Amino acid sequence: MITPMTKYSFILLNGEQENLLEKIQELGLMDITRSVKPVDAKSHEYAGELDLIDGLLKAINKIELPEGTKEIPYEGEGTEDPIRTAGGILMYYSEVTNNIKTQEKEVRDLAIWGEYDKTQLSQLEEAGVPIHFHVLSNKKFQEEWKDSFAIVEAGRDASNVYFLVAGEDTLPGEIPTPKDDISQAKAKLQTERQNLEQLQGVILYMKQFIPDLLEYRKEVCGKLDLHLASVAAVPAAEDTIVTLVGYAPTENEAAICESLDQMDLVYLKEAAKAQDNPPVKLRNNWFARQFEVLTDMYGRPVYDEFDPTPILGPFFLLFFAMCMGDAGYGILLVLIGWFLKKKVPSMSDMAPLVMMLGVGTFLVGIVLHTFFGIDLYKAAWVPEGLKGFMISGNIAGYDAQMVLAVGVGIFHICLALVVKAICYTQRFGFLKSLGTWGWTLLIVGTIIIAGLALLGVIDKPMVKILMIALGIVSGLGIFILNDLHRNPLLNFGSGLWDTYNTVTGLMGDVLSYLRLYALGLAGGMLGSTFNLLAGMTLDIPVPGVNWLLFAFILIIGHTLNLALSCLGAFVHPLRLTFVEYFKNSGFEGTGRFYRPLK
């Protein structure tokens, strides 16, 4: 649900806003209307500093240190400045690693020439017998040159010939005399590697200061937020006074007013209204709160909308489980969620959602009778009592699981239409929502009447009477009363256009839910195929090898299938929610986030 907000309007002398904002920042409860991006030189400076800190943190965490690295305390200049210290160390680290790459290439290039005495090369050159170094492709090198020139071949590879010429030299491919020989290059490489080893110890020591960097980042964020709030003040009365507007949850009104009353200022408070576009804070129970991240991927609801999360949560869980469709994969997801919670602190917040999706997948997988690609309904070792909960067979000539997917889709769309009608009535009033109610009554009422008829609750004459009454009532809302302030002929034309869009759109929306059946079926068939391939390896007449191949195919195959199934089970339910449900429920999702000044 959406937390009710109270609007606070402040009127104060120009120059006093900083004291007020600092007090509000201490409270940490009020959202001051402000920009989310830098607006002047000072805010750009703070934003640049944040980018620098984020870059340093990313670079430090990215460096992988070898096992056995020992801490080496850093004793250079600037230890009191964590940003300067970390930046300097990272620059030196980058320089050393680049030097190592360059030196390794030089060692590879010099290896073909071996070791030589540069002093002797100089003496030969002074005696009139200079030594020339050549690199030439195998195709261009001619063996007969050895009869005319003093050539010593140093070596060959797949592409080139490396050779030296003493004395007169007019041959192609000459290169400058290397500055170092192989032994000197190796010595330099060893020195750089020792520098890197020392530097890795310093980096390990510096990682203990990451909390200091994070704390400093938090401090800079606070300064930026405070500055953006201060420049948001609106001057009035020839810059003599300024006004500020803020919003805070109504449940915190007493604490906020008590704090503000202690200050010498004038402020007004009133219940926030939708036209003010107040920030939106969601407040849900533990279950629904896990799915708020999905709602925010689309957008926060506006202040007078319904929070879709309580409905999105259970349906996304159901859709995900149907797309996965395998109880065995549900167990693996629970284990993955537990691993994330215990071993991966950066993803611990997502662990409850992953575990919840795993439990749902396990339960739905049992109903759809698939366990690691095995059809539980056909397995003799599964109790008959458990098989009673499984969906199998056909309904009216169609696979029962496919009918289930379509039935779930129809119910989801009907629920969206009901939510839309109720929400529009609350936002715009009943008289302005008659058109919406007309479509809701027609579609939902028709489905209910059809269901009752199929179950034999009502007979054909009663169905005819109810459908006529339903058509008249809903037709008035759709074609005549959809806008009470408009010409009836325009209303009728608008109703015809809505009819075309609704009929064509609903058919496509309902068919979209077939993906719940198709994805679950595809995952089950792929898992079954890997089981079959693994079983074929047991026929190999080599003890041990057959079981090794069996385990290899099962592990690799089901790992791949799990990854593909998870991808599809996340994307497609999200699509059904964002397109089919949000479209039919009229959800806008253009609200702004609640960002209290902290």
Describe, in plain words, how this protein is organized in 3D.
By secondary structure, the chain is an alpha+beta fold. The chain folds into five domains: 8-34 and 232-270, Alpha-Beta Plaits, CATH 3.30.70; 36-106 and 183-230, no CATH class; 114-177; 286-401 and 514-585, no CATH class; 408-509, no CATH class. It is 60% helix and 10% strand. It has 20 helices and 13 strands. The protein has helices at residues 17-27, 41-62, 82-110, 118-126, 145-148, 182-206, 210-231, 253-261, 286-289, 292-298, 309-324, 327-343, 351-367, 384-387, 400-428, 434-454, 460-480, 488-512, 514-537, 545-585; strands at 5-13, 31-32, 131-137, 150-156, 160-166, 174-175, 234-236, 241-249, 266-271, 370-371, 374-375, 394-395, 398-399. Strands 1, 2, 7, 8 and 9 form a five-stranded antiparallel beta sheet that branches. α11 packs parallel to α19 (514-537). The radius of gyration is 37 Å and the shape is extended. The two termini are 24 Å apart.
